[in-house]
Amino acid sequence: MSISKSYRLTPQAPYRFDYFQKRVENSSNSYLYSIGENALSRAHIIGGHPVLVHITLDTPSTPNAPVIRLDVQGAHSDARADQAADIWRHMLSIDRPLLPFYQQAATDPVLKTITSDLSGMHLLLDSSPFESTILSIIGQQVNLTFAENLKRSLVELCASSIDVNGSTHYAFPSPEQIAALNYEQLRAMKFSQRKAEYVIDFARGVANGSIDLHSLQGMSNAEAIDYLIKLRGIGRWTAECVLLFGLGRPDLLPAADIGLRNAIQHFWGLDHQPTEQEVREFAVPWRGHESYFTYYLWTALGLARAAQKQQTVTPKAKRKNSKNMAERDKE
After folding, report:
1. Residue 109 and residue 294: Cα distance in Å, rounded?
2. What is the pLDDT along the chain (331 residues), one digit of tens a residue?
């Protein structure tokens, strides 16, 4: 017998749920969610069964201090419902107040402006280190659209779903489900041979216990990265993604990341792209919140480039776009 259970989440201000939802909408993982107005739903496998979590803004709520209602449906016990709620507390960064990070950022004029502009933006985390690793492996060396197609095909192949109010919600597969697949099944869905092997072999290691992801919790960043990169198909970039988005480590510095290096060059007006070592030296004042500084700089650079691209649209192109929009309005 399944049960339903509701929770009320009150993250410390500032907290912008709309930033989180926009991030979901623009992510290559958006296929995992059902998205509504100030509402998100997603299924998870809890205790071997699919469970649906639905979140909405409750009242009273303000943009910087929302009250979030979390409803769990299909859980087989109170404990399983609590487990689903805990997953979302992690994904939504509910228990990670931003004020200490903002106080640290306030010592640098550039970072003070960026954090002010993006105030309330929290890390969007994956539901588990396993999910994060699989998603990162799939995303290696392919564009976002192709990555999303591969991810979606894997989820639909394993076909764990729950039907609620006439809608079907697919859950990200468990290690055991992916471990039961063969390489040819993924090759038929346009996975490369190596990517198919990396995904299935990793899942088999987690399923049989030879890969212990729970042990990562007790490791330092360096120890966890060293553990992960020994596994086939996982390089430093993937390992850093797992620590940042899977475990939610606040102090991870992906110093070799091109996006971070470009952001530092852009916002501090450097005459060259900083090297990995220069990034490490530059980021010494960020200690303790390196993940947040990185996340904010990635976001701010994306927004700056989008604005710059918009400004470079020629007057002729603007007129053409306006004409096209007017014609569509008539249809």
Report:
1. 16
2. 799 999 999 999 999 999 999 999 999 999 999 999 999 999 999 999 999 999 999 987 788 899 999 999 999 999 999 999 999 999 999 999 999 999 999 999 999 999 999 999 999 999 999 999 999 999 998 998 999 999 999 999 998 999 988 899 999 999 999 999 999 999 999 999 999 999 999 999 999 999 999 999 999 999 999 999 999 999 999 999 999 999 999 999 999 999 999 999 999 999 999 999 999 999 999 999 999 999 999 999 999 999 988 887 655 555 554 444 344 333 3
- Spatial CB neighbours of 232, under 8 Å, sequence gap ≥ 6: 197, 198, 201, 202
User: Rounded distance, CA 247 to CA 133, Å?
Assistant: 11
Pick the CATH number of 1-96 from 3.40.50.720, 3.30.310.20, 3.40.1010.10, 3.30.300.230: 3.30.310.20
Catalytic residues: 257
* Spatial CA neighbour of 84 closest among 171, 207, 12, 204: 171
CATH superfamily of 126-159+166-249: Hypothetical protein; domain 2 (1.10.340.30)
Domain with CATH 1.10.1670.40 in the chain: 251-331
